[in-house]
Amino acid sequence: MRLLARRDHSHQELANKLRQRRFSSSDIATVLDKCAEHGWLDEPRFCDSYIRRRSQQGYGPQRIRAELIQRGIDKTLISDALKQCSVDWQLVLSDCIQRRFDSLSAQREERAKQLRFLLYRGFNHDLIQQLGDN
Q1: By CB count within 10 A, which of 25, 97, 130, 132 is most buried?
Q2: Is the CA virtual torsion 76, 70, 9, 51 positive or negative?
Q3: Contact 130, 104 (CB under 8 A)
Q4: Where is the RecX third three-helical domain (predicted)?
């Protein structure tokens, strides 16, 4: 319960944390079922809160998608959550650039470094290009 009190977890995350604490597989399955039954473990809710939190930290949709896949979330659930979220990715990208660089550089080498950083943060070429065109 302490693990779920801090933040939402995916089924896989919670199972891994319980395994680290050396609980048996049958106990883990029972706990996960009970948590899901009571609504304490909810993958769509976890997905929404994760997207919101990571986007506020300046990460783009591609990076967030990859992180959710690593956490055992179904790809269709991730796609639906990213489509339905109210995140303005252009604004997130713009804020990320502002915090890190002040603005995109006109110099070729510096701009290439900035673009690599933005791709690493999970923003795709189209999103970056749209910002550059404005």
Answers
A1: 97
A2: negative
A3: no
A4: 97-130
